[in-house]
């Protein structure tokens, strides 16, 4: 075999055996269930665990997660869902099972922690005996919008406020999971029905009835949503995919799969020039190239 043929064969072998993602970081162990992640401007990653009462911090250049928030005193079975970084604040959804309830109920809270120390700065308990704080997004009005999956509501925490108010309640919010803003418009999805919606808002900031966005491909278990390069990216925990949405006229969206073969991906976040994914079923986070 000549030198050129050998080089070609080695190149082909490398292409086949190369990893499917740019980076991979194990969050404690394979059972840690990283559910949501957020990023600091310097590239630090914040990762919540859906199987333990911990939120982890991963500094740039490190592959070793450090405990950032310890909620073990909250009670047995406490875990975390949504994570969001806003300035020097980390917003987190913490969930604690209610003892001796059948079917099982959960009491959930939104907490704000200092980015530098992890010290809690604010706590707001979602109303009701059974709630599920799932995700949050910062709107153009600088308010924080919070999804409650169980009761199908969106709450709004005004800048500087210590408690949130009900912003939208509608039957079309049943199963609301991820939410995000694109060009000032709030979009959310339903993990129950695999539907995507936008929320019209009037001049006074009052929310109108959600409008369904018709996606042109089947999706399964849509979950976390984020904006990457000016586009909505969405996780499919039921099919192991991450896809990007191209919005079109007539409240339609074209679905383009960015990555498949994942293990129950539940969230993602652009950071360090890549798109990081919470690969919940494998207990790790992985990165792929940013969508163009």
Walk me through what this model shows.
The protein has 292 residues and is mainly beta. The protein has a single domain, classed as Neuraminidase (6 Propeller), CATH 2.120.10.30. It contains one helix and 24 strands. The strands form five sheets. The protein has an eight-stranded mixed β-sheet, with no helix packed on it. Strands 1-24-23-22 form a four-stranded antiparallel β-sheet, with no helix packed on it. The termini are far apart. The N terminus is likely disordered.
Please estimate the helix content.
under 10%
Task: State the end-to-end distance.
Answer: 40 Å
- What is the CATH third-level topology name? Neuraminidase
Number of domains: 1
Measured by DSSP, the beta-strand proportion falls in: over 45%
Structural class: mainly beta
Main beta sheet, described? 8 strands, mixed
Question: Per CATH, which architecture?
Answer: 6 Propeller
**Widest sheet, order of strands:** 14-15-16-17-21-20-19-18
Backbone shape? globular
Average pLDDT for all residues: 92
- Rg calculated over all Cα atoms: 20 Å
Poorly predicted sequence stretches spanning 5 or more consecutive residues: 1-19
CATH hierarchy class name: Mainly Beta
SS field, number of helical segments:
1
What is the CATH homologous superfamily assignment?
Answer: TolB, C-terminal domain
Total number of beta strands? 24
């Amino acid at each position: 075999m000549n030198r050129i043929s050998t080089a070609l064969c080695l190149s082909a072998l490398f292409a086949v055996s190369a990893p499917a993602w740019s980076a991979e970081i194990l969050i404690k162990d394979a059972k840690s269930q990283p559910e949501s992640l957020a990023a600091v401007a310097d590239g630090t990653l914040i990762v919540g665990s859906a199987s333990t009462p911990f939120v982890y911090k991963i500094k740039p250049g490190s592959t070793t997660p450090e405990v950032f928030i310890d909620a073990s005193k909250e009670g047995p079975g406490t875990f975390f869902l949504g994570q969001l970084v806003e300035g020097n604040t980390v917003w987190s959804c913490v969930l604690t099972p209610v003892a001796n309830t059948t079917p099982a109920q959960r009491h959930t809270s939104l907490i704000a922690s200092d980015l530098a120390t992890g010290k809690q700065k604010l706590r707001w308990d979602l109303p009701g005996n059974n709630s599920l704080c799932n995700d949050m997004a910062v709107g153009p009005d600088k308010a924080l919008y919070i999804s409650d999956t169980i009761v199908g509501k969106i709450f709004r925490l005004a800048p500087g406020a210590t408690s949130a108010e009900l912003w939208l309640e509608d039957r079309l919010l049943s199963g609301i999971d991820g939410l995000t803003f694109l060009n000032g418009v709030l979009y959310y999805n339903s993990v129950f029905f695999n539907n995507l919606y936008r929320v019209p808002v009037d001049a006074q900031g009052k929310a109108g009835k959600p409008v369904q966005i018709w996606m042109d491909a089947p999706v399964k278990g849509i979950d976390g949503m984020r904006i990457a390069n000016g586009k909505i990216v969405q996780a499919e925990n039921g099919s192991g995919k991450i896809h990007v949405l191209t919005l079109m006229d007539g409240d339609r969206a074209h679905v383009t799969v960015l990555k498949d073969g994942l293990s129950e991906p539940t969230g993602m976040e652009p950071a360090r020039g890549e798109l990081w994914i919470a690969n919940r079923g494998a207990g790790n986070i992985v990165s792929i190239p940013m969508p163009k």
